User: Fold Nucleoporin Nup37 from Sterrhoptilus dennistouni.
Amino acid sequence: MKQDSTRNTSYTVDCEDYVHVVKFNPFDSGDSCSLIAYGGNNYVVVGTCRFQEEDAEVEGMQYKTLRTFHHGIRVDAIAWSPETRLDAIPPQIRFCTAASDRKLRLFTSDLEDKNEFKTFDGHSDYINDLVFAPNEGQEIASVSDDHTCRVWDLEGNEKAHFVLRSPGMSVCWHPEEAFKLMVAEKNGTIRFYDLITQQAILSLECEQTPLMSADWCLKNTLKIGAVAGSDWLIWDITRSSYPQDKRPVHIDRARLFRWSRVNENLFATTGYPGKTTTQLLVHHLGHPQPILTGTAAVGSGLTWHRTLPLCAVGGDHKIFFWVTET
Assistant:
């Protein structure tokens, strides 16, 4: 849990395996610590973090592993459920994973004797992203290279099925827009679906490909961001279906886009994992240049803390954390 200046990270956590994906819990779990989950080649680890930026009594960062869940196959994506509570008796941990065998796995644990998981079958190709319904947590949406977005209940029954025109790369569900899903496709189209009528109601266009990642801004429901090619792009959905702002950022290709959860003008992007390093860039819409540049050894995944301007990237036996200014 040391301060690490060599790669200009604020903190690092050592892990037993390569970290393919890392995800802060975006929901309040009723505890002063933040939950974080990361996935390796055959397990998911759930732990808690506390940072000196939020607690003066913490020196740097405190990390504690709560439980390691056997997964049996490489973890490609993780989504947290809003039903996760550390202040309940007993506590409840609930998350869902996507794996390289095209299946979703829903895990529920009380961190003691109860450890359940269910497998959801249906996708016929690689699953790129998944998300829980943000308010009740009773449904999960997933997108895949099989050109579908599917919505499941917690028993694994398919409740909705949207046919896409290219691979689905990102899916977002906004707590203030609970009856809409945002789905981003590799061909550069971002569509919003009405979950009541199960119809597309709005679409945005990148006008460039491949779109690899998109995100719906928590702090401003009108803002959408994405990376396509080597550029980041940002839309105001009330103004146009074309981006209001775009900028080339990564020399090769951009891989991930994530809005900060505390500031609607702050976001991060990563480049494609190179042979040795992955570039992380933190951007502020008020600044012409990135406000932070970081590198992670063969990094993958990108996630923002729920209440701090702090993001994390997984890597080779490590998680890297960067603190930025708001």
The first strand starts at residue 11 and ends at 14.
